Amino acid sequence: MVTDVFDDLAAEYRQLDAALGSLTPGQWSHPSAAAGWTVSDVVLHLAQTEETVGGLPPGESEPLLSAAGTTVDGLADEMVAAERGMAPEDLLARWRKAAFATPGALRAWPPGTRLPWVRTSLSPRTLATTRLAEHWAHAQDIALPLGLPYPDTARLRHVAWLAHRTLPYAFALDGLPDVPVFCDLTAPDGTTRWTFGDPAAPARITGPAAEFCRVGARRLTPAQTGLTAEGPRAADALRVVRNYAA
């Protein structure tokens, strides 16, 4: 069953909330898999970005990161450094307040609304997809170093869609010409297939959707997966694919 992205975003937040609510004080200060950040830093980053979503004005206004030479990672590091040091209970409450307001706020925008985001403006539905992708990726940064379970779900369909949909952006970042790519991916249940793009496209990527999403999040390299890339530029597509803005 295909579920609404706003409902799936709320479900992703609930899954992460359950994990965060189980942490001990020592685990909050544990290094995460995000270079240079503790678990607290990761949650602070998520809280800060969710608060940004809540204050977005509609319309084709300037993207949040329009200055030349400014990087997403650089801005995120600056924002985290400026507020680092909150007590875990306060930090969790701050993230909860911002995050659980996001799905309803994005759903409430009328059709045709565009909201400024990192490099461009997005529809509320696409912005919800990017928030799901970011929370899922950072959940890996928290759960894996701590040995916590964080099972993959059918919600990864949205993340895989985003990675495929933004391949032209990824090609452009790497200075490569855009080529059509067809993705034939196996869902986390091991049987459902998710397909994106034209089956007649010259380039094809096949394999587990969870691995495709992790490559797009830069949590795995293509060589660490069972993904197969066939056809012209398919290997390039798998190398440059991303489900986040740079």
Structure explained in plain terms:
With 246 residues, the protein is of the alpha+beta class. The chain has 2 domains: 5-146, dinb family like domain (Four Helix Bundle (Hemerythrin (Met), subunit A)), CATH 1.20.120; 156-240, 2-Layer Sandwich (Nonspecific Lipid-transfer Protein, Chain A). 50% of the residues lie in helices and 9% in strands. It contains 11 helices and 6 strands. The strands form 2 sheets. The protein has a 4-stranded mixed β-sheet. Strands 1-2 form a two-stranded antiparallel sheet. Strand 3 (181-186) and strand 4 form a beta hairpin. Helix 3 runs antiparallel to helix 7 (124-146). The radius of gyration is 18 Å and the shape is globular. The two termini are 32 Å apart. The model has no long low-confidence stretch (mean pLDDT 93).
What's the helix and strand layout?
Layout: H1 5-21, H2 25-28, H3 39-54, H4 72-83, H5 88-99, H6 102-108, E1 115-116, E2 121-122, H7 124-146, H8 156-165, H9 167-173, E3 181-186, E4 193-196, E5 203-208, H10 209-216, E6 228-230, H11 234-240
Parallel strand pairs: 3-5
Antiparallel strand pairs: 1-2, 3-4, 5-6
The rough form would be described as globular
> Can you tell me the CATH superfamily of the largest domain?
dinb family like domain
Q: State the separation between the terminal residues, measured CA to CA.
A: 32 Å
Beta-strand portion reads: 5-15%
CATH fold-level topology of the largest domain: Four Helix Bundle (Hemerythrin (Met), subunit A)
Radius of gyration: 18 Å
Largest sheet, spatial ordering of strands: 4-3-5-6
- How much is the average pLDDT? 93
Approximately how much helix is present in the residues?
40-55%
Unreliable segments of 5+ consecutive residues:
none
CATH class of the largest domain: Mainly Alpha
Structural class: alpha+beta
What is the second-level CATH architecture of the largest domain?
Up-down Bundle
> Which sequence of SSEs, written as H and E, runs from N to C?
HHHHHHEEHHHEEEHEH
Tally of helical runs: 11
Number of domains: 2
Characterize the main sheet: 4 strands, mixed
Overall number of strands: 6
